[in-house]
Amino acid sequence: MFGRFGSGGRRSSGGGRLIIALIVIAISVIGYFGTSQINPVTGENQHIDMTVDQEIALGLEAAPQMAQQFGGLSRDTEATQLVKSVGRRVLERSEANQAPYEFDFHLLADEQTVNAFALPGGQIFITEALLARLETEGQLAGVLAHEIGHVIGRHSAEQIAKQRLTQGVTMGAVIAATDPNDPSSYRTAQMAMVMNQLVNLRFGRNDELESDRFGVQYMAEAGYDPRSMSRVMEILQEASGGGGQPEFLSTHPDPGNRIGRIEQAIEELLPGGVPADLQE
Ligand SMILES: [Zn+2]
């Protein structure tokens, strides 16, 4: 994995500065360890030690590596436009537009792996394999709205803080001990480790349930039938049938249990019932 990161001729000289910036972020993450922040949307007191700007910078830096892991960006321009436009509609017409993040939606070329995920700061991905299994625009909205929920819930930043807790300051100390003016491959390898950690983050069960709740809310606000989210869970369950478990399910708890929670969330959100004019 380090080789892939280090061998990239695609990385511009500006990337080197970003790497240094990320080292500073990593060090500051250690420095701020022990702090907590109130989430402006949920009001939850979270153990998070990075700023919104740091989340955005980290997500943007990790996005190319994330895309690479899933065959790069899709060449299907029509499907890519659909993903971007549905994502933007969910954003612009829902409360999610009040979040301080720079959202972008990407379709990945991977036709085998049924998956979707979000990096901190607003970079959101869905694979062609998952998109191909979806039956309606509302289901696509559901997937993207759920991922928007992860960003707004600041789940990556929370998980990173938790990893600091378990891993201690070892990695930060290694980075801090490295001369920032020495563009050694050693430091590149260390940053690859940070990036790799980021793109392989696993959210907790409560993160998933919170994102499901955000998801149905944002869908409904954007004019999509939130019940489409339940069908998304069924589709994921079907994708997990037989043999290999799709990666999506290793980061997302049992879809069967979640459908009940989603229905409950919809009832709480729309006590008068789901309006008939919402798009499926
Ligand atoms: Zn999720």
Q: Determine the structural class based on helices, strands and strand pairing.
A: mainly alpha
Percentage of residues in strands: 5-15%
- Characterize the main sheet: 3 strands, mixed
List unreliable stretches of 5+ residues: 1-12, 172-176
C-alpha Rg (nearest Å): 19 Å
In one word, what is the shape?
globular
> Count of helices?
13
Number of strands: 5
Distance between the termini: 41 Å
Please state the oligomeric state of the protein chains shown: single chain
| Approximate helicity band | 55-70%
H-E string: HHEEHHEEEHHHHHHHHH
Query: What order do the strands of the largest sheet run in, or round the barrel if closed?
Result: 3-5-4
Ligands (ions, cofactors included): zinc ion
Rounded mean pLDDT is 81
Tell me what the structure shows.
- The structure is a single chain.
- It is built from 13 helices and five strands.
- The protein has helices at residues 2-6, 13-31, 52-69, 77-93, 128-133, 137-152, 155-167, 170-176, 185-199, 205-221, 228-239, 247-251, 255-269, and strands at residues 37-38, 45-46, 104-108, 116-118, 123-127.
- Helix 6 (137-152) crosses helix 10.
- The longest helix has 19 residues, at 13-31.
- The radius of gyration is 19 Å and the shape is globular.
- The termini are far apart.
In short:
The protein is mostly helical and 280 residues long. The chain has helices spanning 2-6, 13-31, 52-69, 77-93, 128-133, 137-152, 155-167, 170-176, 185-199, 205-221, 228-239, 247-251, 255-269; strands at 37-38, 45-46, 104-108, 116-118, 123-127.
